[in-house]
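ok, trying the design again with the full structure, not the truncated one.
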C-alpha cells in the first residue's frame, strides 16, 4: 500500500480546491503504482516550472587534451552540436567555435525531471518508490523547502528533530562486514530515536552505498491517516550530471509525473564519472550545475540547505538543528567541514576512520586555545606533524593536488578556530556512535537551555545521553530534575526514573498531593478497565481527585484508608479547593507503587524502595491477575 504520486495532489494538498480531482481519479493515482505516467495537477505543474530549473551546456568547448567539453559532456550531449558535426572532437579550435558575442555556455531551462523512481534490483523485492526532482544549484531554497514540506509531505506524521549529513569514505573498512553492520545499526538507531532526516551523496558507491544499504535493510513503513510512508527519510543530494542512466528520469511529457523503473547494478563502481542511484534512499535532490561526469559541486548546496532548515523561524527557516558526520574523507571533505563550521553547524569526526577525519582530529587535539580563539597550533612541531600527515595523504590519494597543500593546511587551521563546534568520536572506544550523535545535537540545539536539553533526552528515552551531557551530579538543578522526573513518570521512562533518583532527587520532597493527582489524571486512560470503573464510581468523566482514587482503591482491594486522600477535594474542573496540594506523603514510594500498578506502569515499580516489599509485591500480583 503505497501512495504513487510523487507530489501529493489529494485532499492534503493546497490544490484540492483548484481543480477537478474526482475520488476515482485520486484512488487511481494512489493505487496504480505500475502506471508509467500520472497526470499532474496544473497547480503543481505551475509550482515546479516556475521555481525549479535545469542547466545545459549549449556550446561545445573542448577541454585541453580531452575529447569531451570542459563541462564534462560528450560532443553528442550538446544542444548546438550540429554546428560542429564536421569537426572531430578533441581537435576543435576553441577560438573559432566560441566567438566573443556567443553568450554564456551554461543556460537555464525549466526542469524536465520529476516524479518517482521504482528501483529494480536483483535479489530484492519491490521497494516503495523514491521521490525525485532535478533542480539547478542556484534555485531558491525556500521553494525547495516548500516542495519537501507541502508537496512531498516530509513533515508527516511528525517533523524531524534534527538533520544529519554523512560524508567521507570507507577506505579503512572495505572488507570489515562487522564494522559496517555496527555502524548501520547505530546510525539508524540515532535517526529513529529522533525521527531525523539523513542526507548523503545519493550515489551507489563508497560510504554512501554503506549508509544507503544500512537504511534499506532497516527500513519499514509507517501508516498515516491516508498513506504509508518510510520510517527513515534518507535524502540523496546528488549531482545530476553524475547519475548513470539519468535519461530514464526525464519526463516524456512535462505535464505528466514521471514514473521511472530504474535498474541498479549491485556491484557497480564509480566509472567515467557516473554512478547509479542508491536504492536505500527515499528522496533525491538531483542538483544540476550544467556539468557532467564531474562529481563535485553539491557540497555547498547541501550545506546551504542544512543551514536554511536550521535557521530560526524568524529567519524563515524551520529551526531544525543539523549535524555533519565525517568518516575518513578526502580534500573536498575539508571544504565541506569548513563550510559547515562557518554556518555554525556542528561537526562530529570519527577518529580512527582514517584520512582527513583523523588529520583534523589530530589538529584539534594539538590546538592551543586562548579564550574563544585558536590562533595557532600548540608548537611548531605540531604544525609540521599536521602538514606531513596531509602531505602523505595527498601523495597517496591525490598527487595532482600537491600544489593545494598549503591552502588545505590553512583550511584545517580555520577549522580549528571553530573547535567548540567540533566533536571527536573514537571508533574503537567504548561508547556508541548514536550516543555521540544525539549528545552533539542536544548540546548545540539553538537556544536550548539546560532544562530543554534534559527534557529532550527524556523525550528520546536516552539516559545515556543525559549522563554524557551532564556527568556532574551537582550541575543538575533540583527544579529541572523534578520536572524531568514528572515527564519520565508520565511517559513511562523507567530508566530515566532510576537515573534521576541517583542524581539526588528526594522523593519525600518531590511527591506532593497535587503532583500525585496530576499523575493519575494524566495516565489513568492507559488502563481502560480502571478508567471505566472509576467513572462509574465517581460519576465523572475527568478531573479525578485523590478521594476518588481512594474510593476506587477501596473497591479494588476491599480496603484503602488514607487521611490525605480523603481530604483532597476538587471542584468540577479539577481545581483544588482544600489547600492541601502542597502537602507531602510519609511513604511516597508506596503511593507511587500504587499509582504505577493502577496506570499499568509496571516497569516503574520500585519494590526495593518500599518498606513493605513482600506485601506490596503480593498486592500488585493479585491486582494484575484480577485485571
Amino acid at each position: 500500500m503505497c501512495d504513487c504520486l510523487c507530489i501529493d495532489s489529494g485532499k492534503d494538498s493546497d490544490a484540492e480546491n483548484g481543480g477537478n480531482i474526482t475520488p476515482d481519479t485520486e484512488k487511481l493515482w494512489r493505487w496504480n503504482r505500475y502506471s508509467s505516467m500520472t497526470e499532474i495537477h496544473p497547480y503543481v505543474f505551475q509550482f515546479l516550472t516556475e521555481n525549479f530549473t535545469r542547466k545545459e551546456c549549449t556550446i561545445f568547448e573542448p577541454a585541453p587534451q580531452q575529447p569531451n567539453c570542459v563541462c564534462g559532456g560528450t560532443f553528442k550531449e550538446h544542444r548546438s552540436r550540429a554546428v560542429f558535426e564536421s569537426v572531430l572532437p578533441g581537435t576543435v579550435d576553441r577560438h573559432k567555435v566560441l566567438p566573443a558575442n556567443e553568450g554564456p555556455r551554461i543556460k537555464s531551462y525549466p526542469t524536465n525531471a520529476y516524479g518517482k523512481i521504482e528501483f529494480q534490483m536483483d535479489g530484492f523485492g519491490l521497494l516503495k518508490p523514491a521521490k525525485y526532482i532535478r533542480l539547478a544549484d542556484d534555485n531558491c531554497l525556500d521553494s525547495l523547502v516548500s516542495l519537501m514540506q507541502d508537496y512531498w509531505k516530509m513533515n508527516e506524521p511528525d517533523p524531524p528533530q534534527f538533520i544529519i549529513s554523512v560524508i567521507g569514505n570507507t577506505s579503512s573498512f572495505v572488507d570489515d562486514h562487522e564494522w559496517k553492520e555496527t555502524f548501520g545499526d547505530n546510525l539508524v538507531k540515532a535517526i529513529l530515536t529522533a525521527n531525523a532526516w539523513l542526507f548523503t551523496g545519493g550515489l551507489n558507491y563508497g560510504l554512501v552505498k554503506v549508509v544507503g544499504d544500512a537504511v534499506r535493510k532497516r527500513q519499514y513503513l509507517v501508516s498515516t491517516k491516508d498513506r504509508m510512508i518510510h520510517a527513515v527519510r534518507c535524502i540523496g543530494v546528488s549531482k545530476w550530471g553524475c547519475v548513470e542512466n539519468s535519461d530514464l528520469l526525464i519526463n516524456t511529457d512535462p505535464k505528466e509525473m514521471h514514473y521511472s523503473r530504474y535498474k541498479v547494478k549491485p556491484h557497480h563502481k564509480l566509472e567515467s564519472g557516473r554512478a547509479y542511484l542508491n536504492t536505500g534512499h527515499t528522496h533525491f535532490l538531483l542538483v544540476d550545475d550544467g556539468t557532467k561526469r564531474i562529481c563535485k559541486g553539491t557540497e555547498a548546496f547541501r550545506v546551504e540547505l542544512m543551514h536554511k532548515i536550521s535557521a530560526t523561524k524568524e529567519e524563515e527557516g524551520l529551526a531544525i538543528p543539523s549535524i555533519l558526520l565525517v568518516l575518513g574523507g578526502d580534500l573536498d571533505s575539508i571544504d565541506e567541514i569548513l563550510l559547515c563550521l562557518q554556518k555554525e553547524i556542528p561537526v562530529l569526526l570519527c577518529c580512527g576512520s582514517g584520512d582527513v577525519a583523523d588529520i583534523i582530529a589530530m589538529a584539534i587535539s594539538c590546538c592551543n586555545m586562548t579564550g574563544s580563539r585558536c590562533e595557532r597550533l600548540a608548537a611548531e612541531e605540531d604544525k609540521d606533524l599536521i602538514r606531513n600527515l596531509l602531505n602523505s595523504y595527498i601523495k597517496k590519494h591525490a598527487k595532482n593536488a600537491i600544489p593545494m597543500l598549503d591552502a588545505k593546511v590553512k583550511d584545517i587551521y580555520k577549522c580549528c578556530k571553530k573547535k567548540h563546534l567540533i566533536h571527536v568520536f573514537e571508533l574503537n572506544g567504548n561508547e556508541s556512535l548514536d550516543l555521540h550523535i544525539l549528545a552533539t545535537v542536544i548540546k548545540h540545539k539553538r537556544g536550548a537551555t539546560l532544562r530543554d536539553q534534559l527534557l529532550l533526552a527524556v523525550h528520546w528515552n536516552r539516559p545515556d545521553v543525559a549522563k554524557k551531557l551532564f556527568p556532574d551530579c551537582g550541575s543538575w538543578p533540583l527544579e529541572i530534575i523534578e520536572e524531568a522526573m514528572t515527564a519520565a513518570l508520565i511517559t513511562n521512562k523507567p530508566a530515566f526514573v532510576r537515573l534521576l533518583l541517583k542524581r539526588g532527587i528526594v522523593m519525600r520532597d518531590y511527591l506532593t498531593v497535587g503532583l500525585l493527582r496530576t499523575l493519575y489524571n494524566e495516565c489513568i486512560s492507559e488502563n481502560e478497565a480502571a478508567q471505566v470503573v472509576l467513572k462509574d464510581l465517581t460519576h465523572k468523566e475527568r478531573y479525578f481527585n485523590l478521594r476518588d482514587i481512594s474510593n476506587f482503591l477501596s473497591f479494588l482491594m476491599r480496603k484503602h484508608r488514607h487521611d490525605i486522600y480523603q481530604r483532597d477535594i476538587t471542584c468540577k474542573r479539577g481545581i483544588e479547593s482544600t489547600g492541601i496540594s502542597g502537602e507531602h506523603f510519609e511513604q511516597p514510594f508506596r503511593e507511587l507503587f500504587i499509582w504505577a500498578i493502577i496506570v499499568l506502569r509496571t516497569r516503574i515499580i520500585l519494590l526495593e524502595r518500599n518498606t513493605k516489599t513482600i506485601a506490596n509485591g503480593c498486592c500488585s500480583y493479585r491486582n494484575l491477575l484480577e485485571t
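Keeping the full-length input from now on. The first strand starts at residue 37 and ends at 39.
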